[in-house]
Each structure stands twice: as C-alpha cells, then as structure tokens.
C-alpha cells in the first residue's frame, strides 16, 4: 500500500516537472518571437498601436510617424543582420584551414540546417499581429487595426 502511494506521488511530481518544463519553453519561445517581430516595419507599428490604442483621429496623425520610424528601424535591423552574417563568414573563413574534413562537413551541415530553418521562419512569420489587448489573433493587414479603435 505504501509503495503505491509513493509511486503516485513520484509520478505526479515527474508529470508536473515535465509540464512546467514544456510550458516554460513555450513562453520563452513566444517572447523571443515577439521581440524579433519588433524589428520589422509592421511589427514595430503593431507594437505601438497595441501600447497606445489611439482613437481614429490620433491614428491618422500617428500613422505616418510610425511608418517613417518603422521603416528606419527595419532598415537598421536588416543592415545589422547582413553585417553579422559578414562577420560570421569572416570567422568561418579564418577557422576553416584548421578543421579536418569531418569538422568541415559538420559545420556545413549546421549552416545548411540553420539557413533552412531561417527561411522557413521568415515565411511562417510574415506580417504583423494587430490584436486587441489581451487577445491573440492571427496576422492582420495594417488597415484592419482601425476596427479596434
């Protein structure tokens, strides 16, 4: 009888640990994705619309300002990413002479896997999310956010 009781408690703890671990991973992933989306023009605008919740009059005034700075932010993020890719490639060029064939193969496979994942992520996350506060909805067009104000 005591063995069953102990097994039930241990099983409950293990299940709780697994659920907590998976939940924490999903929350972290979601926060990272939201941060990355902020670097896009529409993601930048959407974030400020959700924060400010402007009325229709304010939106007409704010829209061109957010467009202007959203484009600048997006351009800076894009330039930074290209610069980082260049630095990464320089590092790979410098490291390559010191690697054996197996290491070069593993490195190339890792790069290909990252590039495939990066392309898939780009296509999956196109466009902003304009949601009502506290709700998660799909992607929307910038003009659709007017219905919320």
Largest β sheet strand count, sense and barrel closure: none
Rg over CA atoms, rounded to whole Å, is 23 Å
Task: Count up the helices.
Answer: 4
| Backbone structural class | mainly alpha
The SSE order reads HHHH
Shape: flat
DSSP helix fraction: over 70%
The total beta strand count reads: 0
Low-confidence stretches: 125-149
Relative strand content = under 5%
- Arithmetic mean of pLDDT: 79
Give the domain tally: 2
Distance between the termini: 62 Å
How would you characterize the overall build of this protein?
The structure is a single chain. This protein has 149 residues and is an all-alpha fold. It has two domains: 1-37; 40-148, no CATH class. The protein has helices at residues 2-37, 41-52, 56-95, 101-124. α2 crosses α3.
Key features of this structure:
149 residues, 4 helices, 2 domains, single chain
Explain briefly what this protein structure is.
By secondary structure, the protein is mostly helical. It contains 4 helices and no strands. The chain folds into 2 domains: 1-37; 40-148, no CATH class.
Which helices and strands occur, and which strands form pairs?
Elements: H1 2-37, H2 41-52, H3 56-95, H4 101-124
